Amino acid sequence: MIDCVTFYGEIKLLPKERLSFRPAVYGLIQDAGRLLLVKNRNNGNYTLPGGGIEIGECMVDALKREVREETGLAVEVGEFLEFRERCFYYDPEDLAFHGLSFFYRCKPLTFELATEENIEDDEATEPSWIAIEGLTAEVFQHNGDLIMKCAQEGMNA
Q1: pLDDT tens, 5-37?
Q2: What residues does 100 pair with on adjacent strands?
Q3: What per-residue confidence (pLDDT) applies to 154?
Q4: What is the DSSP letter of 16?
Q5: Cβ neighbours of 120 (radius 10 Å)
Q6: Segment 107-130, tens digit of pLDDT
Q7: 71: nearest Cα among 36, 104, 98, 26
Q8: What are the structural domains, with CATH classification, of the chain?
Q9: Residue 90: how many other CB atoms lie within 10 Å
Q10: What's the rounded Cα separation, in Å, for the pair 103 and 100?
Q11: 43-72 residues labelled b (16+ CB within 10 A) or e (exposed)
């Protein structure tokens, strides 16, 4: 049995046969002391723009696609920041994953955010530039510690 973190932050034991590999890539995009974030449509928690890498798609292309779908912005993918691995259970669809997440710093090439009707992702909503100083790790769906550390480092660079 594998410990999986649920969508709501609890632990659920699942047989390993229930899990599917899910490689994903996320972009830390900063501008003028702000961080580009989207909210999870199911619970309102913040996440970085990004998501699953499709079969045959390279990470950089996946990240550019995901950022565009969720926020409407074009980005230049820069420095690799970190890799995280976690097993999670996605309650809304009764799915379980062995997640492999890659985080990159990105530079925005455009700044006009998508309106709600133009977001091409079923889970993302409300793309926004949020002041980093007003954020804490707890407002994020997952990896809040990593996001805040990298955002602070980006402000000091």
Answers
A1: 988 888 999 999 999 999 999 999 999 999 999
A2: 23, 85
A3: 81
A4: G
A5: 12
A6: 999 999 988 887 877 777 799 999
A7: 36
A8: 2-156 (3.90.79.10)
A9: 16
A10: 10
A11: eebbbbbbbebeeeeeeeebbbbbbbbbbb
